Every structure is written in structure tokens, then in C-alpha cells.
């Protein structure tokens, strides 16, 4: 598409070719054509509209939304399609509208076959005559939904991997109902790829796209009134880097996963979400997502990341093949996990003498009571044997703890995700059932200190700042100041009286550089947090 437009030429083209080109503004225009739909068994009309202020990825490819409209079910967003498309255009997206004209099959799960075709076409480099759609910043959206991209959920610590820079952050994208009269649950997935400091905001880097495994589950969820979100993989580095060798292990991965859940929950009110959150994970994304299943409290994990004090509980999880307990990797030698067998002793020492450390690294460690989330495991029995062994072990732990467990087995072969009609129906029905059975999760615990009672003055601060907070009764209070890498800079732990309390932090003495810091007060393991800006 040309960046500048000759209006006289466009007007002449309209006269010559009828409706093939529709003039919108002096800086955006639309083209129309037909696309072969698997769902309808015929061609359907599409309209492509360029944004007047196009957003592009690091490779100069256009951020694109394929917008599915006039489906055969009622959309829950109350905006008109025109309003939502214009909103997407104003946010830099090229929009390709596919008009299903209320075809009887334009509903879940039938529609997922078209989602796969769309993603595969974009991944191969040609969709609706376009060869410059971004492969990692293009999305399929159903009518009535919008997208919130690049939401930060954790500030990474480069020392964990020996890779990256101090201000690296992890991000997520959220697909949410637009101006909906119904609050919906959301399913969160962690990319089965990893981010990269040279490729920010990709979500799916290293050649992987949403089409990589024909994985349509997430993008098809809104047809079941479920919003979705995809987050950067917790492993912000290539394979083999740093103290964890880039495995998804604790406390690093769990801190990030729980911070992502808390961040998503805090945004629920403004995005029309119910506060009920599910997890969907496959392969490395399953390793990461599984960290959210258990209910065990662990201060070394829960007190890190964003929105400390907000519930990180999830209401359901669907997990594909993954690694959930590292103590189980030697059950059968070299059954597909040789890299783990070789590298884990290098990380944590000999298993026999360091069993507790090994055990604390996986998701099974967090499953403590029946308050843990119900899980549906999906897998094919001809996948790598160690995956089957890991799932069997995790199932046993959940069963003996009294947690609901379900399975979806042999929907395909090998290391693949579900994409058949029956398999997708089971996944969607699982989440809808568990969401319906669960109570709404509030953003904040009711017995923690009120954020409104915590003040920092002055803020921004130079030499010192005063922290003020109120207590309903005398109690022990921990005050902690951390930098953006979650490193503790200052901490005090002492008894305070009921009512208003004040304490002064000498910033000069701490020799803090300019920047953003996070101050937390903790009472009875319940926290409030505020940002502190240090100025010289």
C-alpha cells in the first residue's frame, strides 16, 4: 500500500472499478475481495482497511487484526462493528473484516477451522492479497472484542539468566469484550516461545506464531463468551542461559506467573472481565502456566512482581504435556528428557542429597490443599514418554489432595494441541463449567491494609521521605523498599500502634540513584504497595 494517496487517481479508480476501492479519508482507504472459507464452504467478502497511523513490528511488518463479523451467535459487545473497527484503526492496526453474513456454521467450534487457515496464511506470508502482515503482531478478533497490547506484568532480573538489561519487562496482550453488558471470564496462556530483548512486544518469538501448532483454542474462546490473554514466556532468554539454564523453575517462573495473574485481575473491572481466570498451557507454556494451579503460600514468591496483595488464585487450568516435578525425571533414563537429566544436577546438586530443593522447583510443590485449581490434562499417549510420566504424577498429587481432575486423551498424535471439534468442545465446556461453579474473585483481599491509608510524602523524593499508614489494631508491620529488579534496598520489621503511624526513610543514607522504587507494608502476610520516585 502506498503511504501517500493521490485523491484524483483514487476517485478515478472508483469510477472505473465500482466498489473495489472505497475512499475513507485522505490517509486511509479500504479494498474489498473474496476469501475461501472452510466454515461456509464458499467464498465470503472481506474488506481491508489501512490505519492512517500504522503500527509495525521490528521487521517493518504491519500489525493486523482479522475481524470476524456477522457471526451466527449474538455478540456481547454493545458497540457497532463500525465503532470497534474505527477504534482498531485509530490504534494503528490494519483491519481485515471477514463478513460471515450470519452463516449457520459461523459459530464455535466450527469457526476454529477458519482461524487456523487465517493464521497459517499469515504465517506463510500471504493473506487476502497481503504479504506484509506481521507474523507475531497479528490477531483474529471476534466482533464485539477489542485488544489491549503490551501490558507490562513483571520487570525481569537479567542476573537470573545473565542476559538482557536492567529495564527489561515482560508483557501480555488481552482480548476483552468492548463495552459489554456482561462480565466474562478470561483464559491466560503463556507463550510456548520466549521473548528477546531485541524483539520487544512479540509475545511469540523464535519463529513461533499462533499458527505454529494450529493452536486455535485461545482465539476461538470469545465465541464461548470467554476473553483471553497471552503473556510473554517467563523465560526471557535463549536456551541454556544463566542460573536456571532457561528452564521454567522457581522462584523465577512462579513469581512471573503469579504477577501476570494479579495484573490481569486488577484490570478486570476496566476491561469488562469477571475476575475469574483460567490457565491454558502447552509444552513450555504448560510448565509456566502450571505454576498458578497450587494454593501454597510462599512469601519468597508472593511478595514479588506487580499488584502484591491481589489474589493470584485461578479457577481452572487446562495443561498439555509439560514438566511439573523435576524429582521425577530419572524414573526412566533418557526417555526424552536427557537435557534435564544432564543439566538439573548442575543447577541444584545431586538429587538424593538435595531432594527438597529439586522438589521446590516444579508446580507440584504448590499443591497443598483442595483449594488448588481443578485441572484438565490434554495429551496424546504417543508423545514423549517423560511427558506422560509427568502428567501421571501430577494427576496423582491432585487426586490425593481432593482436586477435580479431567483428561482429554489421544485427540491427535504426538506433541500437538487439540483442534478437532470434539476436543475443542471439551476444553471450552471444561472452562465454562468451572467458571460457573466458582465464585467471583475480588481484586483485593479484604483484610489487608487499605491502599488509601498508605501514603509516601514527599513523592518524588530527594533526601528522605515519610511513610504513613493506619492500623485498626496494634500489630507487627514489615516495611520494605525494593528497586525495579525486586532487590530489597531497605527493610524494617517492628511493632506499631493502632491508628496513624509514621516512619521516615533516609534516601541519602541508602545512596539510591534516580529511578522508580516500590514500597510495601506487610501486616499478617497482607500487603499494600506504592511507587516511590527518587529524584536527585
What does this structure look like?
By secondary structure, the chain is an alpha/beta fold. It folds into 3 domains: 7-136, no CATH class; 145-437, Rossmann fold; 451-534, Sandwich (Immunoglobulin-like). Helix content is 22%, strand content 29%. Strand 4 (62-69), helix 2 (81-90) and strand 5 form a beta-alpha-beta unit. The longest helix is centred in the last third of the chain and has 17 residues, at 421-437. It is globular and about 70 Å long.
Order the strands across the largest sheet as they lie in space: 7-8-10-9-11-12-13-14
General form? globular
Structural class: alpha/beta
What is the domain tally?
3
Q: Tell me about the biggest sheet?
A: 8 strands, mixed
The level 1 CATH classification of the largest domain is Alpha Beta
* pLDDT < 50 stretches: 1-27, 444-452
Q: Kindly report the average pLDDT value.
A: 86
What's the N-to-C terminus distance? 48 Å
Report strand %.
25-35%
CATH superfamily of the largest domain: Alpha/Beta hydrolase fold, catalytic domain
The beta-strand count equals: 21
As a whole number of angstroms, the C-alpha radius of gyration is 25 Å
Helix content: 10-25%
Question: Which CATH architecture of the largest domain would you pick?
Answer: 3-Layer(aba) Sandwich
Count of helical stretches: 13
What name does CATH use for the topology of the largest domain?
Rossmann fold
Amino acid at each position: 500500500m502506498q503511504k501517500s494517496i493521490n485523491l484524483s487517481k483514487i476517485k478515478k479508480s472508483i469510477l472505473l472499478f465500482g466498489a473495489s476501492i472505497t475512499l475513507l479519508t485522505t490517509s486511509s482507504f479500504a479494498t474489498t475481495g473474496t476469501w475461501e472459507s472452510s466454515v461456509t464452504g464458499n467464498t465470503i467478502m472481506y474488506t481491508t482497511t489501512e490505519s492512517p497511523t500504522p503500527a509495525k513490528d521490528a521487521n517493518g511488518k504491519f500489525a493486523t487484526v482479522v475481524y470476524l463479523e456477522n457471526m451466527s451467535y449474538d455478540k456481547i459487545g454493545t458497540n457497532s462493528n463500525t465503532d470497534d473497527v474505527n477504534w482498531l484503526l485509530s490504534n494503528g492496526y490494519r483491519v481485515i473484516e471477514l463478513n460471515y453474513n450470519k452463516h449457520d456454521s459461523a459459530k464455535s467450534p466450527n469457526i476454529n477451522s477458519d482461524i487456523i487457515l487465517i493464521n497459517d496464511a499469515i504465517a506463510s506470508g500471504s493473506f487476502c492479497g497481503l504479504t506484509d502482515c506481521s507474523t507475531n503482531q497479528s490477531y483474529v478478533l471476534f466482533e464485539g472484542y477489542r485488544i489491549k497490547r503490551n501490558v507490562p506484568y513483571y520487570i525481569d532480573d537479567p542476573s537470573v539468566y545473565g542476559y538482557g538489561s536492567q529495564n527489561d519487562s515482560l508483557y501480555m496482550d488481552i482480548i476483552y469484550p468492548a463495552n459489554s453488558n456482561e462480565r466474562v471470564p478470561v483464559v491466560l496462556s503463556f507463550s510456548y516461545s520466549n521473548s528477546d530483548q531485541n524483539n520487544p512486544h512479540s509475545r511469540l518469538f523464535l519463529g513461533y506464531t499462533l499458527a505454529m501448532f494450529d493452536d486455535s483454542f485461545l482465539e476461538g474462546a470469545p465465541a464461548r463468551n470467554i476473553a483471553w490473554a497471552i503473556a510473554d514466556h517467563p523465560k526471557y532468554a535463549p536456551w541454556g542461559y544463566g542460573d536456571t539454564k532457561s528452564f521454567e523453575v522457581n522462584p523465577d517462573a512462579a513469581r512471573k506467573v503469579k504477577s501476570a495473574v494479579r495484573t490481569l485481575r486488577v484490570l478486570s473491572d476496566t476491561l469488562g472481565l469477571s475476575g475469574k481466570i483460567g490457565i491454558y498451557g502447552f509444552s513450555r507454556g504448560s510448565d509456566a502456566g502450571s505454576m498458578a494451579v497450587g494454593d501454597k503460600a510462599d512469601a519468597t514468591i508472593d511478595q514479588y512482581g506487580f499488584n502484591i496483595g491481589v489474589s493470584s488464585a485461578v479457577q481452572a487450568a487446562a495443561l498439555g504435556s509439560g514438566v511439573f516435578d523435576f524429582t521425577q525425571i530419572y524414573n526412566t533414563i533418557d526417555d526424552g528428557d536427557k537435557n534435564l537429566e544432564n543439566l538439573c544436577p548442575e543447577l541444584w546438586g545431586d538429587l538424593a542429597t538435595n531432594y527438597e530443593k529439586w522438589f521446590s522447583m516444579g508446580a507440584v510443590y504448590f499443591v497443598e490443599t483442595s483449594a488448588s485449581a481443578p485441572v484438565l490434562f490434554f495429551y496424546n499417549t504417543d508423545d514423549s514418554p517423560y511427558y506422560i510420566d509427568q502428567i501421571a504424577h501430577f494427576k496423582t498429587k491432585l487426586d490425593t489432595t481432593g482436586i477435580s481432575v479431567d483428561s482429554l486423551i489421544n485427540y491427535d498424535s504426538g506433541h500437538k494441541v487439540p483442534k478437532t471439534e470434539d476436543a475443542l468442545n471439551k476444553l471450552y465446556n471444561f472452562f465454562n463449567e468451572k467458571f460457573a461453579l466458582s465464585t467471583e474473585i475480588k481484586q483485593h483481599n479484604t483484610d489487608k491494609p487499605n491502599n488509601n491509608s498508605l501514603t509516601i510524602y514527599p513523592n518524588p523524593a530527594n533526601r528522605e521521605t515519610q511513610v504513613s499508614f493506619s492500623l485498626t489494631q496494634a500489630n507487627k508491620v514489615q516495611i520494605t523498599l525494593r528497586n525495579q529488579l525486586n532487590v530489597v534496598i531497605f527493610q524494617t520489621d517492628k511493632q506499631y500502634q493502632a491508628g496513624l503511624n509514621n516512619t521516615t526513610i533516609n534516601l541519602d543514607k541508602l545512596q539510591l540513584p534516580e529511578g522508580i522504587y516500590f514500597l510495601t507494608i506487610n501486616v499478617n502476610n497482607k500487603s499494600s504497595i506504592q511507587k516511590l520516585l527518587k529524584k536527585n
